[in-house]
Amino acid sequence: MSRKKPTEKTIKRLYTRSGNQCAFPNCEQKFFPDNNTENISQVCHIEAAEKGGQRYNHNSTDEHRRQYDNLIILCPTHHKITDDTSEYTVEVLKDMKNKHENKIDERTVSNKPTIFVTAINALANIEFSNDGNIDSLNSFSIDEKISHNQVVRWKPRINEYKKYQGKVESVYKNLESTGEGFKKDKLLQLIQQRYLTTKGEFLQKSENTPNKSDDILDKIEKKLIDEVEAEYDDMVIAIPIIMVDAFMRCKVLEKPKQ
Asked: Is residue 100 part of a domain?
């Protein structure tokens, strides 16, 4: 059986968050150098796609091997260098990818100061039915909530994105002050509903895996990005940050027991 290729959306997301640059530390190699149409990048598996490859994980699945979290984009030189599995372990490559993507996210947010306004307005335009009430900001330890929900893959993203909560809250307040009908609580209800719906889907399927919380967050992210009518590249960066804000308000995943 031939290995499964990554989906087009997975590839697009990888390139968006790569910033058109190799993820290897201090490598400034661009994938389309000097406006050249030739793409010199290589989409690499962190855990090999096939037996005999670098860092192959016998306990994984073909479906997981082609997922976003198992892929990193490198230039040809550093793709070859990372074949040294003694130095470039799974953990090293995942940390490399996370740090590079966080750097690109930070650059994008800095260069596009209205990115959260665009994303929040796009989310606010999604029609949904929910009459539930939203509580005020909860007080609890983020680390305890991560541990309570057994979050693994999203942990670095949550810890990195929580620094943007002030910016997200500022956008909420500014949009509410315009008097044009925007309500922060309604948008949080949308995100909470998507969480509850996704959680229900997992319960129906009796999916009980160690990464259930991570998989739920993945599906919420995909749903919201697919639903909004806005520039895809911007939404790939802005929506997960807005989700982390909702996580900190306890509208996504469960609050730790007191």
From this structure: no
